[in-house]
Write a structure and sequence with these properties.
heterodimer; A: 514 residues; mainly beta; two-stranded antiparallel ribbon; 23 strands; B: 240 residues; mainly alpha; elongated
């Protein structure tokens, strides 16, 4: 729908270079785990409860509650619509539907002496990159080309053709120079760097991001009952990471003036990210009294060797600047010098997570007719400042780490430590169960003006009889985030969009006792 | 979508084919309390007919079966069944000059040291991005810039009509004064003495050079031919 607005189709060639940002690091670190339907119904809390396959991904000590074995599958269906508020204009995105996977796999319980050991092989979708965000609005303050003109101005040359051949100048700025959107001009005898999109007093801007992919994790875990009061566990997670993201940015002259040397500009970027990740998780569960469970879990950083590629194109229409027959020009990044570089590899480390948790189980007895329910809550601490980029291979020294330092400094400057909360409970009536839960992930942004959060309200039903169990859950999400279409230098002010992602996820877990 | 429906069908088939030991009686709930797995109540018989064995009994049995079948046919294997298999098992030839695995490495593997330790070397080049243009410029100062302008001075999407004159807002935004890293300070202090970028927060920056030098294009938008640079030049325009 939105694509119809764009009158240009770019020929995108393979131009692959380094384009990671702090926002990309956050996408790989700020998410809610997809557990079983039972787990998601109780807000995802699982750091002390145990007895559910999700424990393999949260606190593997919880696997020790298994004395029998389970085989489970958890398909899920996600839907919803995004909204974007940009400079006073509210825009609705398109409906999105997507199948996804909650925790599925095998748990082998009751092994070893006195049946105290359990093992699990489970898979789950950790992060979901399937989303579309859209916003548009009028802007009488800044232009997309402002930082591009600033970069050219700071490059140390007054000649656009020198800058185009300068490897330190970004491909986007080179393309803006190529299309004469950013240029030099002599005004009143003084040479200036100009961005022609700054000529109109007001511009219409719109931004569309279409993304797909996610992080799927395969986890191998072990849990052991040390004694009646203590349980311990450890697990190894292997992540498979894939994202494809297309970003369109369009800026046009909103004044209707056809003599101000600017009609519109369009930037089209296709970004692909592939890689894998490794992490370790360990935990303890302490039962000081019967029915009470206290949990502690630590998740190591996920070490992610990643390979990314970016293809882009740029176009500008400059009214009658070059005459009526030469108003429009476009360029693919492969056409400008340096645009045909090979793909780029790097390592990203996600932050460590620490969780404490408590559960109260009503009637921890074998007779299921006497089991009445439970309540459980997790508090998780993580610090997004702990994310960092590093060289992919070769010796790691000050020289090889230097290119990543500005990115890591930016991560330190804009992100902070957060507490995340998950709480839920279950009422059990012999073979039928009812559940409710809530989860809240606080903003990772240091600046209070940037509103980010993930909030989930959930409810579900379960049935367990004759060796089979079925759980059905609905999770409603009310997420907020921000998006900067471009960033400018102080004292100029940045502009950003407030994004909302509201929708639901229906999760079904079907399992068999084996 | 078809793939996902197929996945669901496979899921249903896999689950329906599973057998459970809990078709009767209560189904344990591991969250609350899980009893140990029910044990078989009959005598357990060791059944190892499918085991793939490599012990001495296995080889002795096989040798006898072969000999019974034909006394002379397998004579050439007598040595192996008699003693070579023990030699091989206990690495009789391991490390010897005659062992093809070690002798090849000894003479021909360039990464093999003379003490017979085989080293597999994977030469990986260190990778730097110094000369790779970035798709977008990354400026730490813009990321740490906490000045925000999210409101227009009076125009809104639904009420604005082309041709309306807009007065620029008179903002007085200042830096928040937060302690940024030394890198940021270096960026701010790295001014070019021959050029000037205005520091007015409310208007687009003017980027002028002093003294004036010749540029590639004038304000009238003439063709942008190169002024002495080598390499690729942007296309000339306005020549028709």
């Amino acid at each position: 729908m939105k694509r119809k607005i764009y009158t240009i189709i770019f020929l995108l060639f393979s131009t692959i270079t380094f384009s990671q940002t702090p926002e990309d690091a956050l996408k790989l670190s700020w998410f809610q785990l997809r557990g079983t339907a039972r787990n998601q119904a109780i807000g995802g809390a699982m750091a002390s409860l145990g007895g559910d396959a999700t424990a393999n991904h949260v606190n593997p000590a919880g696997l020790a509650f298994f004395k029998t074995s389970d085989f489970i599958l958890t398909p899920a269906f996600r839907f919803g619509k995004g909204r974007g508020l940009f400079r006073g204009t509210d825009s609705k995105g398109e409906n999105q539907t997507q199948f996804n996977l909650g925790t599925s796999g095998l748990v082998f319980g009751g092994f070893g002496q006195r049946a105290r050991n359990s093992f699990a092989i489970t898979v789950t979708q950790q992060a979901d990159f399937n989303y579309t965000s859209y916003y548009k609005g009028l802007n009488d303050y800044s232009s997309f080309a402002e930082p591009l003109a600033d970069e050219f101005f700071a490059s140390g040359t007054t000649d656009p053709n020198v800058a185009i051949n300068d490897p330190s100048v970004s491909l986007l700025t080179k393309m803006a120079l190529w299309t004469y959107l950013v240029d030099t001009a002599t005004k009143n005898g003084t040479l200036n760097v100009i961005a022609r999109s700054e000529n109109p007093s007001v511009r219409e801007q719109e931004n569309l991001v279409e993304s797909s992919g996610g992080v799927t994790e395969v986890n191998f875990g072990w849990g052991s009952e040390i004694n009646k009061k203590w349980m311990a566990g450890i697990s190894l997670g292997i992540n498979i990471i894939k994202q494809e993201r297309r970003t369109y940015f369009h800026e046009s002259d909103a004044t209707g003036d056809t003599n101000n040397d600017f009609n519109f500009l369009t930037y089209d970027e296709q970004f692909t990210l592939k890689g894998y990740g490794l992490n370790l998780r360990g935990g303890l569960i302490f039962r000081p009294k019967e029915y009470i469970r206290l949990g502690l879990a630590v998740h190591s950083p996920t070490w992610m060797p990643l390979k990314e590629s970016t293809r882009s194109g740029f176009a500008a229409h400059l009214d009658n600047l070059f005459g009526p027959n030469d108003a429009y020009d476009s360029v693919a990044s492969v056409e400008v010098p340096g645009g045909n570089q090979s793909e780029f590899k790097y390592v990203l480390n996600s932050p460590t997570k620490i969780m404490i948790s408590g559960s109260y189980v009503f009637r921890e007895v074998e007779d299921i007719a006497r089991q009445k329910g439970f309540i459980t809550a997790d508090i998780e601490y993580t610090n997004y400042k702990w994310m960092y980029y590093a060289p992919y291979e070769g010796e790691r020294n000050d020289v090889t780490k230097a290119p990543f330092e500005p990115y890591n400094d930016a991560i330190d400057a804009i992100y902070k430590g957060t507490f995340n909360f998950r709480v839920g409970g279950e009422l059990k009536f012999k073979t039928i169960m009812g559940r409710a839960g809530f989860a809240y992930y606080t903003s990772p942004y240091k600046d209070k003006e940037l509103k980010g959060r993930k909030m989930f309200i959930s409810g579900g039903l379960g049935y367990r009889n004759k060796g089979v169990f079925v759980d059905l859950t609905y999770v409603h999400r009310l997420n907020k985030d921000v998006n900067f279409p471009y960033r400018v230098n102080a004292p100029r002010a940045n502009t950003f969009a407030d994004l909302k992602d509201n929708g639901g996820n229906v999760i079904l877990t079907v399992g068999v006792k084996i | 979508m078809k793939r996902q429906i197929l996945l669901l069908a496979i899921t249903a088939a896999a689950l329906s084919s599973c057998t459970t030991a809990y078709k009767t009686g209560q189904t344990p709930d591991d969250v609350y309390y899980s009893p140990a797995k029910p044990q078989d109540e009959y005598v357990r018989v060791e059944d190892d007919k499918d085991e793939y064995r490599y012990n001495d009994d296995y080889y002795d049995d096989r040798y006898l079966r072969m000999k019974v079948h034909n006394r002379v046919q397998w004579n050439y294997l007598d040595d192996w069944y008699g003693y070579d298999r023990y030699s091989y098992r206990y690495n009789y030839y391991y490390g010897s000059f005659y062992n093809p695995y070690t002798s090849w490495n000894y003479y021909y593997n360039p990464y093999c040291y003379r003490n017979n330790n085989v080293i597999i070397y994977n030469p990986k080049q260190s990778h730097t991005i110094a000369n790779v243009p970035k798709p977008r410029n990354f400026n730490l100062a813009s990321y740490t810039n906490a000045n925000y302008n999210n409101a227009n001075s009076g125009v809104r999407m639904n009420s604005f009509k082309p041709g309306t004159t807009v007065t620029r807002p008179a903002y007085n935004n200042t830096n928040s004064g937060r302690g940024f890293s030394n890198t940021v300070k270096q960026i701010f202090s790295n001014n070019n003495s021959s050029s000037n970028r205005s520091n007015d927060s409310s208007n687009p920056p003017s980027r002028s050079y002093t003294p004036s030098s010749s540029g590639s294009s004038g304000s009238s938008g003439s063709s942008g031919s190169s002024s002495g640079s080598s390499g690729t030049s942007r296309p000339s325009r306005g020549g028709n």
